[in-house]
Amino acid sequence: MSVSLLQIPQLRELEEKYARILGPGVLMERAGKAAADFISDLYPAPARVTVVCGPGNNGGDGYCTAIELLKMEYDVNVVQVAGKTPKSDEAKAALAEWEKLGRTTYTDPYDTPKADIVVDAIFGIGLERPLK
To answer: Which CATH class is domain 24-121?
Structure first.
């Protein structure tokens, strides 16, 4: 079986194209659902999950993942990295959906309850600097 890997510019182009075709938030919702399904295949509910969300669209994917996992009866907590709120409208909408569920959004990962699974939704393809 062969697998094609995309370079970041190619992936950005595809994301932009399908975001226009599908409409706001759809790719983010699909990414969240796919991540939640992947987790549920590996770890059955009710596991404890912490989703660590950055301020970009990858963080928005994280909020969508948290929402989907909550629907699947996981015990889910969200951490906003350094307390930074989302930048894009789509990620802001995903955070708003999470907050509508009445769940706590932490700003310090050390304040969150212990987790069995940690989801990294900090950096995505938008990162343009080296990791520290």
So the answer is: alpha beta
